[in-house]
Fold this protein.
Amino acid sequence: MTVRPLTTLDEFQTCIDLQREAFGWADIDILPRRFMVVLSHIGGLVLGAYAGDRLAGFVNSMPGIREGVPYWHSHMLAVAKQYWNSGLGSELKLAQRRAALERGIRLIEWTFDPLESKNAYINIVKLGAIVRRYYPNHYGETTGALQRGLDSDRTIAEWWIDRPRFSAGSDIRRVTIPGDLQALKNQNVESARDIQQRVREQFLKNIEDDYVAVGFERGDEWSQYLFIPGASRVHQTD
């Protein structure tokens, strides 16, 4: 697998095709080619992973500013179905990290569905991101099959790429989510909605109480976020 920056219109067009395959989106939710062009000209980046001549996955980054400090918002990571569960997503994120460090970027952020245990495991355990923001129904209704039946609640993964990881101490709060959200939805979507409401309330309560998620334990039936106190003191932008 070769990972490199994407820069041409033809390369950006393959990103559009891959979005349809990976997410099953209608055109209204697809990031257009012109968006990729803009990213490449304003301090962002689009990285593609190639298996031979085929685009197997891509990740993009757009520049942002928070409290006067530049960071990257990683708006999308898409992987072809053939390469799901292959580790390619993590490989793209690590390539993104290397590119950010070369540009003096210390923080990369992205949104993810807090009920998807695989994504939470990768983001928190494998990469070392933390979570201290939660947005109910962040994008409104979307056309993707994975989101169907639920609000588009999102958490923000903060990946401080030049800072040490946190470990959970003795004062831990846990938030439990399904081990396989999509299987639960297929069995009983109303149960999935009830769990989403419960998780939403627990996340927002923990955030209100100044707790931050720094750990995640993944299981077949149920998985758990691990929250510790002191969110307001963690990884400031100074």
Observations:
- The first strand starts at residue 2 and ends at 5.
- The longest helix spans residues 189-208.
